[in-house]
Design a protein that fits this description.
alpha+beta; Aminopeptidase; 7-stranded mixed β-sheet; globular
Length: 154
Amino acid sequence: MNITIEPYSTRFAKQIADVFTQAVHAISNEHYSAEQKQAWASTPVDYSYWQQRLKAERCFVALQAETVVGFIELEGCNIDCCYVLPKYQAKGIALQMLQYIEAIARQQQREYLFVDASKVARRFFVKQGFSVIKTNKVQRAGQTLLNFSMQKSL
């Protein structure tokens, strides 16, 4: 898929929040229940929260034309978010975004990348050379969410 990746701009804040929310709520209930997904990505979307959050993160967006189809955040050695709109998933967008930030991390002479991956994202990150360090139980809005701390040597 033909996309461009560029640094975050405030004009993308609403679309990024929507990508996050739609991606989380599209996850199969066999991985996370409806209640867990609501705790993870509450609706209605709090756009003011996202505008504030994105000011503090190093975010990159995947664009098809002017539509945000995915985003990834890198803070130091940590990938904080990596999400793609459901209808654009399995088209190589997450891989392109990951390769983009891996190049940045290498330029910064980082030795590792770390990510806390969901049950669904774990498989993607393993395919890209990440290893599971530990399993986490995260509490959000009264729900327990399982994720995996992972790392990759660069």
